[in-house]
Amino acid sequence: MANLLVLGTQWGDEGKGKIVDLLTPAFDVVARYQGGHNAGHTVYVGGRKVVLHLIPSGVLHPATLCVIGNGLVIAPQAFFREVEDLESLGVRLDAARLAVSRHAHLIMPWHPLVERAGEEGRGEKKIGTTCRGIGPAYEDKAARWGIRAGDLLDLDVLRDKIRDNVEVKNRAFGPLGLPALDAEAVYREYADWGQRLSPYLRDVSALLYERMKAGDRVLFEGAQGVLLDLDHGTYPFVTSSSSTAGGACTGLGVGPKTVHSVLGITKAYTTRVGGGPFPTELLDDTGRTIASRGDEFGATTGRPRRCGWFDAVAVRYACRVNGVDRIALTKPDVLEKIGEVSIAIGYRYKGEVLRDFPSEPWVLERVSPVYKSFPGWNDSVRKARRYEQLPRTFRDYIRVIEDLVETPIAVISTGVEREDTILLEERLEGLVDLGRMREDRS
Ligand code: IMP
């Protein structure tokens, strides 16, 4: 029993925030490995809603070290906004509790501008990004133009890099109709951020190595979801980083053998924000009911999420690509009293039935789902504290999902609060130290 990786198995917004927050007492460190403030992880504690974008979801537990890996892209203003919001809620966030990789790339003022112009230029084919500058920051990283958090530590290096970048960006900005950037103004702004950020900056790979060597347990936290992964998602309607389990190694500088098991967070239905194929999308009243009951609005942008039935083809694929050991199923309460519920068990395409998730997105765009339907559940799942107390029809739904995605469900989240959770303890053995979690609660 040691380190656990937690990620979303759909298109994000599966409810990772709550599950990471719940499991954190069993770990010493929570380390996020990719994405930026495009993510939104919602945590409810004592009726209070806290939305986290950059800072790992373990932050509400004072004994936990939170780590932001090199795989992230960081907007300093978003980082400090979040630090200040958390501090105003009484969460202490000094450098002893929060470490930021010196190799994380910075989101610069030009990144959101370039992104907005790029999205407009795509017209009908726009991706529907969060316009936070995430994609262009990763583009600059791959193009070897990026400015890293560690560059803030040497003002000469920072000034040079900003000057070179602004020269190149300004050449591109004219034809895009964007105003020229002032390198000196950007330098002054980022030099100030550098002063504030420098206490948090660390060699995260070395820090994690030392902590693990000393016996500490790490929870690796993904953002977005598997189907938004740059390589394994529904490209090009994806984010720009590696949200799959492999991203933890590159995004934190840890070896693959440090990831001992993987917990996939899976919503009892499917949602997606932004453009791209979504075979089980419901454009009818049922879809609208799920959206309003599930409060399905983007935690970052407030955009309405598209809603649809559970897609077992997609989740089985996600379990395979990430080696998911166990699933935490979230938000089944949203489907209460909805009538009959359906699960996609295959896709119809050109007269054939596909059982596996198609690797070409243009195939996914043209499939129609093959559904298996079940009687829904009218009793409240929220009231249940043990598995046996869950409505029988919902337990049948769980078993069908497990069979179809070939992965056992070990956690059932029945509501937003920490206590609205059923842990199937024998299925978590070896993954999570439940004794330690219980000690923390008592
Ligand atoms: P980007 O990450 O802002 O580049 O957006 C790329 C795609 O990923 C868009 O469809 C976004 O709506 C989606 N996306 C990014 N972050 C999240 C998230 O945390 N939850 C759900 N969708 C996301």
Give an account of the 3D structure.
The radius of gyration is 22 Å and the shape is globular. It has 14 helices and 20 strands. The strands form five sheets. Strands 9-7-5-2-10-1-11-15-19-20 form a ten-stranded mixed beta sheet, with helices on both faces. Strands 14, 16, 17 and 18 form a four-stranded mixed beta sheet that branches. Strands 3-4 form a two-stranded antiparallel ribbon. The protein starts with a strand and ends with a helix. Helices cover 33% and strands 19% of the residues. Helix 3 packs across helix 4 and helix 5 crosses helix 6 (183-197). The chain folds into two domains: 4-98 and 203-441, Adenylosuccinate Synthetase, subunit A, domain 1 (Adenylosuccinate Synthetase, Chain A, domain 1, 3-Layer(aba) Sandwich), CATH 3.40.440; 105-200, Adenylosuccinate Synthetase, subunit A, domain 2 (Orthogonal Bundle). The chain has helices at 16-23, 76-88, 110-122, 134-142, 155-176, 183-197, 204-213, 247-252, 285-293, 312-322, 361-364, 392-405, 425-428, 434-441; strands spanning 4-8, 29-32, 41-45, 48-52, 65-68, 73-74, 98-101, 105-106, 201-202, 218-221, 261-267, 270-272, 306-308, 310-311, 326-330, 341-349, 352-354, 368-374, 409-413, 421-423. It is of the alpha/beta class. The model has no long low-confidence stretch (mean pLDDT 95). Inosinic acid (IMP) binds next to helix 4. Inosinic acid binds at residues 12-13, 38-40, 127-130, 132, 134-135, 223-224, 228, 237, 239-240, 273-274.
